[in-house]
User: Fold these one by one.
Assistant:
Number 1:
Amino acid sequence: MKNQAGRIERSDYLDAVQDALQKYVPEEKGRMQSGLFQAMRYSLLAGGKRIRPILVLEFCGLCGGNQESALPFACAIEMIHTYSLIHDDLPCMDDDGMRRGRPSSHVVFGEAQALLAGDSLLTLAFETMLSPESVQGAGAARAARAAGVLAKAAGPYGMAGGQAIDLLCEGKPVSMETLQRMDECKTGALIRAAAQMGCILAGADDQRLSAADRYAASVGFAFQIEDDLLDVEGDSTAIGKPAGSDAENSKSTYVSILGAERAKRAVDELTKTAVQALDPFGEDADYLKDLAERLACRNR
Amino acid sequence: MKNQAGRIERSDYLDAVQDALQKYVPEEKGRMQSGLFQAMRYSLLAGGKRIRPILVLEFCGLCGGNQESALPFACAIEMIHTYSLIHDDLPCMDDDGMRRGRPSSHVVFGEAQALLAGDSLLTLAFETMLSPESVQGAGAARAARAAGVLAKAAGPYGMAGGQAIDLLCEGKPVSMETLQRMDECKTGALIRAAAQMGCILAGADDQRLSAADRYAASVGFAFQIEDDLLDVEGDSTAIGKPAGSDAENSKSTYVSILGAERAKRAVDELTKTAVQALDPFGEDADYLKDLAERLACRNR
């Protein structure tokens, strides 16, 4: 990644993404719909780990691509992630009043505006990737392919489909297979899309593209299991329940199905698989190895 | 439009769109999220005038483009129109229990599934336009540009922004200027996008592109005023209220602001402007002239 055109330093990833998001979703104070932009910015600029945009930028860089040209795509996937959180929190869905330590969008702006803010972020993601500037920067073929990958990952065969499976399973104990299928759609698809988009934007060959996909699939799955482990630890610490009892509802988790020990072993195995998948990228992939390991060890 | 590659006969437009929509949104009975696809199909395949897809196909044909290759784009704009109707009917928005003579999506499938069906149709629109097949058919540069135009028209600067302006004005009397601004975003933007997309997909020059845009802008505005006229006639016939009293709420309409006579004259003027805009297309444009006139005279 030396002397690469349009390079962004790893230490600048978060700032670069935040600055670009600010640019793509301005305040628009002069417009009648400025309240809509305010609602979009409230959720989008609130922080978060920005894992998806970082994967886009890092894989793009690893494959020798222009990371500046990948920024609109990195921001687009964060917009889509944020829209899903806003709609997910709505009263008709999870009815969650808090998000990232602040009141949810619909609590602050009302249900109608939150609905529109989600719709707008989803649409603006495509507007951002397909603007004349973005298309010129990335090249039309790569831009169309990357945006297409993201659309598929976010739609009824991906994230939105996972939400529908979740609705179906609500409050019912489910099998390991069902839980995995749901998470592959609900969260896995978008993380895999991020890695793929980075490679596509850099014009990477199929070998690197599928290696990146394997990495992201393993990391995404490990992340999900680790989330369940963290929930249990949180619960047992906070309320004194035995780990894994999950008494609040009968929702199945990886921990309730596998038990905490097997779940931890699964995270370790998946992380190993993720790291091995990085072989084609050589030493340059150390950053992604560290990322996989940090995501896997959040509570240990 | 003779001997043109990928030509679709005008009399086949509706069937071609319906068949393609069926293909792009299959039943997916084998998938866990088949209920989501059912909800998407319920609203999408329910009919409607299909004005937007017809504009895509007709302008594409007029400009010598391949209409078969434009079908995914024609279907995408109908998906986006349908998503907007589903979300618009939700309890937190207009809370409308009926749509096109049938119960609304959320009445049949519940609020959560209706929300997801809307989200999914919006996302699938981009998946459909940006699939490898669609991009190959249209060419990457044209596909990316057409999809970008649609994204902008549907997002916070277009349709979704218009919804936000509508929220802001709810129950308040507004000026002619505000009402027009709202409708330009809420409905005008998507109709203009349809005409532009058809031209872009055919590789039309800027003169034809801006002529198509002027036509669509005038037709869209006329359509909106005519809608208000129809509402008033409907009200006065059905409930015996004097035309224009609109006693149910204090929402401003073109009729309440202009009066019925001036509103009718505005429709006629706009239709004339629309027809004049078609000059660069010559005699081939008779179909679009008829369309403008039919849309303008729905109640006369």
Number 2:
Amino acid sequence: MDNAARHGDPSSVARQADSVLSPDPEKFGLFLVGARGAIATTILHGLEAMRAGTPPIGLVTETGMFANVRLADPARFRCSGWDVAGDVHRAASDLARTGVLPHDLVELAAALRDRFEMDLAPGVPEPEDEDLVDPQSAERLKLPPARMVDALRHDLREWLQEPRMRRGVVVYLASAERSRPLPPGWDNPEANPLDLLEVAPETISRSLLYGAAAIAEGLPYINFTSAPGASAAAMSGWAKRVGVPVFGNDGKTGETLLKTALAPMFRDRHLNVMSWEGYNMLGNRDGAALTDPIRALGKVANKDAVLHEILPNPRLHTGVRIDFVPSLHDWKTAMDYVHFEGFLGTHMSLQFTWHGSDSALAAPLVIDLARIAMLAQDRGEAGAFAPAAAFFKNPLGTREQDFHRQMAMLHSWILGG
Amino acid sequence: MDNAARHGDPSSVARQADSVLSPDPEKFGLFLVGARGAIATTILHGLEAMRAGTPPIGLVTETGMFANVRLADPARFRCSGWDVAGDVHRAASDLARTGVLPHDLVELAAALRDRFEMDLAPGVPEPEDEDLVDPQSAERLKLPPARMVDALRHDLREWLQEPRMRRGVVVYLASAERSRPLPPGWDNPEANPLDLLEVAPETISRSLLYGAAAIAEGLPYINFTSAPGASAAAMSGWAKRVGVPVFGNDGKTGETLLKTALAPMFRDRHLNVMSWEGYNMLGNRDGAALTDPIRALGKVANKDAVLHEILPNPRLHTGVRIDFVPSLHDWKTAMDYVHFEGFLGTHMSLQFTWHGSDSALAAPLVIDLARIAMLAQDRGEAGAFAPAAAFFKNPLGTREQDFHRQMAMLHSWILGG
Amino acid sequence: MDNAARHGDPSSVARQADSVLSPDPEKFGLFLVGARGAIATTILHGLEAMRAGTPPIGLVTETGMFANVRLADPARFRCSGWDVAGDVHRAASDLARTGVLPHDLVELAAALRDRFEMDLAPGVPEPEDEDLVDPQSAERLKLPPARMVDALRHDLREWLQEPRMRRGVVVYLASAERSRPLPPGWDNPEANPLDLLEVAPETISRSLLYGAAAIAEGLPYINFTSAPGASAAAMSGWAKRVGVPVFGNDGKTGETLLKTALAPMFRDRHLNVMSWEGYNMLGNRDGAALTDPIRALGKVANKDAVLHEILPNPRLHTGVRIDFVPSLHDWKTAMDYVHFEGFLGTHMSLQFTWHGSDSALAAPLVIDLARIAMLAQDRGEAGAFAPAAAFFKNPLGTREQDFHRQMAMLHSWILGG
Amino acid sequence: MDNAARHGDPSSVARQADSVLSPDPEKFGLFLVGARGAIATTILHGLEAMRAGTPPIGLVTETGMFANVRLADPARFRCSGWDVAGDVHRAASDLARTGVLPHDLVELAAALRDRFEMDLAPGVPEPEDEDLVDPQSAERLKLPPARMVDALRHDLREWLQEPRMRRGVVVYLASAERSRPLPPGWDNPEANPLDLLEVAPETISRSLLYGAAAIAEGLPYINFTSAPGASAAAMSGWAKRVGVPVFGNDGKTGETLLKTALAPMFRDRHLNVMSWEGYNMLGNRDGAALTDPIRALGKVANKDAVLHEILPNPRLHTGVRIDFVPSLHDWKTAMDYVHFEGFLGTHMSLQFTWHGSDSALAAPLVIDLARIAMLAQDRGEAGAFAPAAAFFKNPLGTREQDFHRQMAMLHSWILGG
């Protein structure tokens, strides 16, 4: 695949799409946890739109930085995955009504959604959600954790049997999980996660089960949600030993992206940020989930920590609020107030309002990460993959939170390949 | 002077101040054009405050990046310069009332201001301002340009005769100049500016006259205003030949700083900025000057160009307005609206409001540049000095406008010294 | 028609729609100047949507204030009018893509648009636009003004011959006109406008021609654009004598509405507003027209004057900018900065950002005004109609600009009927 | 006192000040609970500044509405009151450093503060604060409630013995109280509060004790804090019987003022507000107190309720957050996001940022209320005084929350006097 001079050439993906018709094109499985959610639905439709010639706006892997790298062609991605409830037709029409997916696209993709639905597997719900999930997923709740992992691995093997589908990645896109302590042994980098599953089903994060299944099948695992999936020491240690790269945590799509792009300016200009207060409003399923303080815990901590890592002021005051505002649907509006001190202690301020579609911001990053993950695997990377730090609120393998330095890390890795 | 671990150690300047009492301390001349203006007044008082222990917030040269570099001690800076009108006592009390300078500091520095006033020289006004300037400056207006430069050189030599004052820098801080075409010959890098002064006095920018005087006296020249001073090919070419570094143009203090810190994020995330509209309001002398469209021309062009350099969209729509709002005094409020396209063409927006004191933002950068200029001269740098690009809207010697890459350039230069 | 308890009963219009099927329902002509523009297109579709049960959000005449008044049923409105160019199908699909009109509605209304198109008459363009208009409208440009008015009157009589269409109103919705001085005699309240048409065609505002035609045919005239149509003394004087009410000028839909709703709070709290700067961005045909400073003149003056009328500070600084930002399409984003002084001269600020669809804000007000105009005519009102001041930036017959007092005026008039 | 044409005549108060020198001027006691707090300190200094000629910006009673009413002259106000801790000199210098009080004024008023301090009485603390209060106030904590009221009445009688001090008002300005249920009997309008004090000291709100003392001494009581002081049925009933007017609750100074000034515009234009989210940041003692959720309860409820009273949408989503951001000191920054639906369900938004000094906004309203309270008493008003609703978040005697209608109520009362 020729990436050269791709930037500014919106037809590049369209041209690649022609090759789909060529004999024996390789396919890549994109196995999504939360497959009927807004992000997954946007990915499914977005890949289809790009096959039809829509320019790949939002894909980092379609900028000049990747011009000389051979990446998997998104036109050959095949989506499948798991979910515990929902209806992808309804998700799509909700996103069209909200202005995220074009109406025409949603109409044209009805058959694609039918095929996608048929291919999905039941998910592994959290026990607290038992009453909210579909019967097949409820069935999986009765299994002990080791059997859950077996079922997920079975699903993956089924999907990978499709002709010419030789590889893929697993992406965890479920809503923010309830915060749970790591079960015993999971903090040991020498342990094998498959030996750590003899625990009560309600004590273990689902992200660990999906991650274990992915790695056991040799597939890179991308933990895009606020969940421990890829960061447990046992998981990343094992991934490193068996040669599978893992990515995470918690996709950096909106307000936190802005924080990590702006805070370096204050640091570099020696302006003393005294307070940085961030107010997030969103109205989608993810927003509803975060009204549960136990679920919000990890996400708020991730959003909050980045500033303390970048800015030197030990007395920096930060606040993060996430409020569920149903009328916003998929639109996340963040209002931040930054109060800082300049020369001679003069008080100044910066205030910003970010108004973005959560799913339209996240979906292309997931496609990027899937492409990078397969490239990383080709290059022999294994375990926690630090060069993708720019994509995450709480990156694995590095404490660097400055977005621009993270991009420089990614650039170095690409050049060094 | 020990810069190690300076960052986070606000007492470092205070400690250095003790050494002022030591025998035979070297002094550094800070020769300011526009010496009774708000920025110069803030510099004068800020240096005094730092001598008394105020932490050096806002000084880039007091961050960790400069920890292992030997820089001139601000405690040993001695301010002087030129102005065509005004009263530094009034400037100081205006800045105190506006909340830029602390009241106590202004009261304590009355004697310092008296000494400063006594030392000032009349400036070289623009002919259009003849009726607004003091009699001594009006006198200088009658001279032909070559004699103006002689007078300025004479002033510099006077100031440099002060005991132990062996060196200094000239900083152009006057209000935005009226836009004038370069006089003949000034675009020739081989020419000697001193040979190009046989022109009508109303056809030549004052910044060229001050620059010629500075370089002729071997002093680095920092063009902090929107003016051609340091960028005329004849000036930078001559400076290179005679071994003097020159810096400019147009200090990057507020809204433009933010633009160049934020635009890279959109570029790197492949988000397509469609429109970026910037509205600037300010109420000081600089703001009043910019109500003259001929003066505003250069400044607006500088503020506007940065985005087109960073962002790839050839159809990017940008707007820059600068409005004089007297009630704001020294406070510059900028409101920017960024309209961008994400995945599948979804429209999103970022809006920000920046509320900062123009003078408190500019003053520490001038001190930084003076220190860097002397370091550069020590290291043998000459002509247009590109590594200081991060300080300017329209940097010399480079087209790089990405603030983070500019900071990386500066860092490389420091390490490479 | 029963308006009681309408507020909070979104089905009321739907119920009225049933009566359309009843024998012999009266019809009301809504004769729109600029019939293919965004506002007219939104009105056309909005009336259809309300017939199908969409709640009448945005209609002032559907609030409790009008509960006991007999108003024309919008379900019986029949749209027609004039335009000089354009295509209503394209206007509708543009508004759908921009998120103003629902996609389904635009699809369902194709036949309605076809009928509407067939019924339209060519408009009377401004001479400057000769090359931009359709051939039939260009033809009308060749007529002397008196013949233009005859042609427009002929169109009105044609439309009114439709069975059971006994009355109607004319609404001027064209883009902001180029500013022209009033031709001789038009400032005389005793004159008859039909006697004042012997002028060169390029010297007279089109809004005067449409207004003269409307009044000559006994139809109320609503001047919703920034144009002199209803305010020329000859026009309102004549309207008064012949018993026709006229309404205007310049619909108050967004930023100016907010200004007149907020400024009274500052006045009533005795907070001294020093500066009020308003920045408007919009991307539709109206926005493009306003890039012509001659067209923008009146609109900017109207937007600016309201504050000086409400706020007592004689040194109040105000600014109004209107910028054409194409990517915004029909969305008008206004950012205002209010700088005010409180107790002991303390400086404080209010800043707001308004993001609204120009057409979705204007369309229901036009329907309101049409209903109120017919009610006023029934009640014997004639000439400049002051009680509708709340709908206009530059209201006729009153200097009151306080939105809340304007609403109280309207309320009094309704009760007094 | 001549109020005519006062508006726009900033010297009016200064002129009145001359009369202070006249023989036998009457004095008015302003007895403040929380006398060393930021609001009280601002009142103390503000009255002094107005005596010296500072224009009465922010005083509603100095607008044209009161032109023909005889009000107490602020130049004759004499401040005294209670507090449980603090130091008025420190409060003043804090307010100067923060930009609320002018430096000169604070310097000039040192002797005034000394006299004020000498006159203050110990306050009645909440038991939870025992360790934070001064010894004299701690002493009062040991008294049973009935004795506390006796002590407060004794203080009032002392202050009123000053020559020519014949009357006064009591204003409750303490920080938001901890929420406590009303003790038995206080909900009975027929009861006498002095008979309801046989309760455990930790079960009764301090605002009830101060209120009982004020009314028992025949002084109007203004409950400016979020506390039950004036709204308990026993209190207002008794006040009515004994001929004393009472005012409250919870001064409407900033974000809530804006809400009640803006929401009527949405209602009147039939725009359907779906969500209104308000984020408040402040850094003063009041802000610190509100980090205690038990204290914040009442305030948040008051700020939230106003919208539901004005806007008709039964599914309106509202949110109110109050965050303590120490770097803001006395400056309250509120960021509100209003999401609303227009014609055909189009989603639009209004966002605002209010940046105001809490004390500079509150202080003039307290002076206004004191003047109005004495006027009301002169006119024979007694019990809950509804015409002052515009000053309060949770007004007594009316459910009207529309600021403009509240102002109309006040206007009517003034005219009717």
Number 3:
Amino acid sequence: MPTIHIELHKGRTLEQKTACARAVVNAVKEHLGAPPEATQVIFVDVEKPDWMMGAKLAEGGPAR
Amino acid sequence: MPTIHIELHKGRTLEQKTACARAVVNAVKEHLGAPPEATQVIFVDVEKPDWMMGAKLAEGGPAR
Amino acid sequence: MPTIHIELHKGRTLEQKTACARAVVNAVKEHLGAPPEATQVIFVDVEKPDWMMGAKLAEGGPAR
Amino acid sequence: MPTIHIELHKGRTLEQKTACARAVVNAVKEHLGAPPEATQVIFVDVEKPDWMMGAKLAEGGPAR
Amino acid sequence: MPTIHIELHKGRTLEQKTACARAVVNAVKEHLGAPPEATQVIFVDVEKPDWMMGAKLAEGGPAR
Amino acid sequence: MPTIHIELHKGRTLEQKTACARAVVNAVKEHLGAPPEATQVIFVDVEKPDWMMGAKLAEGGPAR
């Protein structure tokens, strides 16, 4: 039943994402007691320019 | 005012999505009493490899 | 595999939500071909004051 | 700490998004007291056909 | 049509949120060309303990 | 920069969530190469009745 959305900069490989998701599923199982059968991990790729940090914006420079 | 996000595997046609959204708008109208004018449906396509199921990950195989 | 989030004003009963979710699951099955076993519906209650409409804000009045 | 997601129709330029994000970061700073260093703005482009308006669907016409 | 979700620590007043949302609606209008009638702002209150910063966690201390 | 939302049934303790978040931050660091300073984990408690499983709904019984 846990549903986990991971927003990240585009560019990671499927191998990286799979290894990460496996560790997340294990963390959720160990620490929250949630069975892997009920756990989903969804990766949401974000293009770098679409992810803007307030600190950079406040300086008046580019947003990343 | 209801806003509905439907995350699904990429690959459905616009016709499928439109028919689905129409049924969802009707369901929201009939069962929640929400007027269609205030209802929005947003489809979020997810690439299959980005949607990982815990059960598959726990088996140590590929994540889908 | 479809995951559906329905944001709505707080106040609907469990009966209303259940009937709505059942219709949504059927819509997703019929029009997207997604099996109910893989479908989840999550209701997200939003307090009315937290949901602000741009039209009301632009008029300078209260936001709802 | 505020995280802002802006869903919008695809097609705006990076310049438009940057100017918008800067104004949003300032709004959050001025009205919520949140420091820009802790604020993030994420733009989520939505393809027009994926964003369906209930009013259009209820009329039986195209969904946009 | 822009839908804006603002996640923030619980505790702001309705007045603060309304002023912030009004500024956001204006920013979206000015910089993205989106009409206020089509813009919605949804505030999502997050309890402080539910929002965990990686830097704090990595230090092994409390997560906020 | 990764932002992780963990939706889960209400009821876990802060200790459980903190331990889980720490493991998630480490997983993201190890497998995605993302620095903890840029990682946030947000827990989203969902009331059990608000999380409906399609399989249960399709059987015509209660939704959980």
Number 4:
Amino acid sequence: MAGGSGTRFWPKSTANRPKQLLGFGRDNPETLILQTLRRFDGIVESSRERRFIVTTELLKSAIEDQVGTKDVTTLAEPAARNTAPCIYWAAREVFLRDPKGILLVMPSDHYIPNREAFRKTLSAAAAWARTHDDLVTLGVKPDRPETGYGYLKTGAEVGRSEGMPCGKVDAFVEKPNLTRAQEFLKSGNYLWNGGMFLWKAETILCAFDSLMPEMKLAWESAKGVLTDAYPKMTATSIDYGIMEKAKNVVSFSLDAGWDDLGSWTSLESVADVLQARADVGIVTGGDVLSVDSSGNIVDAPGKLVALLGINDLIVVHHGDSILVARKERAQDIKLIVDQVKAKFPTKA
Amino acid sequence: MAGGSGTRFWPKSTANRPKQLLGFGRDNPETLILQTLRRFDGIVESSRERRFIVTTELLKSAIEDQVGTKDVTTLAEPAARNTAPCIYWAAREVFLRDPKGILLVMPSDHYIPNREAFRKTLSAAAAWARTHDDLVTLGVKPDRPETGYGYLKTGAEVGRSEGMPCGKVDAFVEKPNLTRAQEFLKSGNYLWNGGMFLWKAETILCAFDSLMPEMKLAWESAKGVLTDAYPKMTATSIDYGIMEKAKNVVSFSLDAGWDDLGSWTSLESVADVLQARADVGIVTGGDVLSVDSSGNIVDAPGKLVALLGINDLIVVHHGDSILVARKERAQDIKLIVDQVKAKFPTKA
């Protein structure tokens, strides 16, 4: 899945250049979508028949510029309509090619540094999905009482796959407050919902037919014309449309350093990789000099950035735009982007 | 006088482009040196015989690019050695051309918005200097208890010129603390030392011979070869070398909105002209959008600057350099420039 509106990392990200097309970190300039594709090497064959990127018409050419067209098929949605239509379409495409095929559904803009741990969990989960009519999630093992993510509440172990336990998912839980998040962490029964799923094409299409029957109706009434079908499909998330209602959801616990890179401040969670500087903070681009400064996040490739008495700010230069934001307001960058869209639309 | 090291407004100013070569304010893009020259129109003839700019070899061509060579003579010092050698040389040049000539000595990088008030005071002071062997200063009438300027302590009125009182200067006073500055303001007997002087060439040369006799010795032993004379002249200020010691110093009070533009924050003193924005602060270049921000100073021509939760900062983009500084640290930008000189000398 490679849509996205490009607001959270503005001005580095824009509507035409959302997060998956960007690289983060000095020593890791590979873009997130290329990292995502490489994560499957040796597990998922590199071919147009096995790898699909679902994105929007707006982003198709930019994505193909990065990933090429030889080893992956790009499916361009007529419009972004959240994850349910995207996954429905992808499942139909896979089913057409292989009625027994299974899908691994992954966001293309997440950060998963421990590739070996990821592959091991993925292999176990894929083996389970191949042999069960379950909706399998990769739930991320929490290492802190995070209030910014949704959680999966796991119940009884329903079996093992390649030595790894598979747990029943009893509930999808919205972002908790800190007290609840601390309880979740302590209980050991909760995983972060990272939006990573595995299932047979047949299993997820059955789930759609049962829980979102309008999807099949939309598709069939449009006689396969995508631009006719899409507006009729419900623009909702797979979580809300399917996962929260289905009874056959199970989960494998992923412990591979996952982060969704949801905002500039999330870079601090991967600070060990980015090597935070005591005299500045995180620097993901540009030369930085400082006096009496710390705890900042600076991304300004090609620029010399000088900080004097500056703490806990985000300083970004890209294109002709400069963002200076308090770190604690990182979630509100969309308020800035709204203004940019209204007044300087080419820069959003 | 048009020397300067270009540190205080870095990165807008640099060693090759000090403050006098820059314009400040959206509605007033004329550079400070051009403003300075224009301030004398109608008072000082626009000619190479009447107008002299003393600068350094480093800056000569940049200055001549702005002011031309037709109506003003540029004197390039072999090296910057503070104001005393600069004024000594200029006085000799004027004396050569007109033994009865008087000099008006002015910094080229100050801001004086009320041109008519300036001309009126200048005319009165020039008339006094023409008819008295005094060292005349234009002292700035203070409108606040400023601790960032030196003061002139004025005593008895010694006469009037064109209706304006001329006061004896009893002392040059270093930058005071706030309590003393408040006393100065209340007493009405103190003026800011703005470094603006008038005197006969003959009078100042006499003062040099009496108080800094080494200047004449240096000049004569070098037989007029500037590069030989300059290293032998004492690198000190006219204030310390002459004014604080001379007995014949008088002053006229200038009330024309003067500011020395000593730092980025000084732009706030001219905020009425620069039209501070409630949602940002002072903007002297660039488009600025903001959320929950105020009291900032932004100069980033050609850029879109977005501020999110930002208060009391200086944000500047020029060339390939970006400065983000706390306003209260504006006087410490030189610490940054020292680092720039050491690590990125072409950007200082």
